[in-house]
Design a protein that fits this description.
single chain, alpha/beta, ten-stranded mixed sheet, 13 helices, globular
Length: 475
Amino acid sequence: MSSNEDLQETNTEARFEFSKDEASAFKSEKGLDEETIRVISEDKDEPDWMLQRRLRALKQFQKMPMPTDWPEAPDLSEIDVDEIVPYIRPDIETRGGVDDWTDLPEDIKDTFDKLGIPEAEKNALSGVGAQYESEIVYQNMQEQWEEQGVVFCDMDEAVQEHEDLVKEYFMTEAVPPSDNKFAALHGAIWSGGSFVYVPEDTNVEMPIQAYFRMNSEGMGQFEHTLIIAEEGSEVHYIEGCSAPKYSEFNLHCGGVEVFVKENAHVQYSTVQNWSKSTYNLNTKRAIAEQDARMEWVSGSMGSKATMLYPSTILKGRGASDNHITIAFAGEGQDIDTGAKVYHNAPETKSTIESKSVAKDGGRTNYRGLVHIADGAKNSSTAVECDALMFDNESTSDTMPYMEIDESKVDVAHEATVGKIGDEDIFYLQSRGLDDDDAKQMIVSGFIEPLTEELPIEYAVEMNRLVELEMEGSLG
């Protein structure tokens, strides 16, 4: 490896594997009870209806069992909510974040400088939100989109400034607290996240991004993202996540709700690089109306265990849904990902393309569900799952579920699992590559369907993260 490549690797690794001394304006006690909920809601000065929703979600969480009956599910026995700090408000003067990076405290600004977020905003984005611990600390949107009525703000501000919309959509239809135990946990102690509203016939031509950073050991991050794309609109939202490695586990339990109205198009892209001391348990769901198009592009690179299954309800005739996912599991990682699609209307279409890579004894699993309801005539779905393994200690499973209640449909499923072929490596070595470079080239080609869906800056980052994972550089 050349000196420039060594420097690039060192710089890329340094972007993620660092932490800052904790400095907060407010920090809740460990654990979860009604008093904790009331303290969080009071600190945010929330309206009573939101407090009541939190308390109802808490009761839901307390009576729901852990998901231990799923076949081959990741081990979640280490998770003890009573040992998690659910809420840390960063020490900044402006609640809801600033709109100039230079106004942030030096330690927080330095964090996002190292992650490259300000530079990405200049080159490739229409707007950026940055969350540090439990709240958004930076929020900005280009004026041209604000002038067209596009709203991009943090969820805490949206509760105050766009109360009617939030009250109508927040955890009512897409992700109710009753959906699963961790959705209920999220509903009780959510904090921060993004609110995006795109008016009718408005095309936000450059992506907008939110970046979520956990800095403190033993905390939980519970951001909520709510996207409403009105009729004929279009938007691409990118979510980035990271956390330093600690000896204590961290918990990420976010919630995402996307409403894609008639003829609208939303792409939701995720590049996650959680440390291997983080449990990543998200609930993401979209509802697509007539002729709407929803796209999920997901890259899960880190975490100790991940359970993530973005889902779409195809509610209107002609709606479509597309999933492209990549999961990478190394030593000690259990990455359980997939997709869910509900065809509830005629002439709806869905495609799911899943790629996974396992090495050093890691485990990946595709867990998916496609349901085609009675009456959803002329609907079609195609599922393709490809897994690549580096050694005999690693494992990869595929668990597709198909529930077809309509006869006049088109259903296809294909799955392949295999090791990197010696003949492929030999061929590349004969062209001058060493063993490591040959394997990296094979994996880069394997995940290309995902990276080509991202803006070039993020595609480069994704490929570099894969290279670092293969080299064992990230902890």
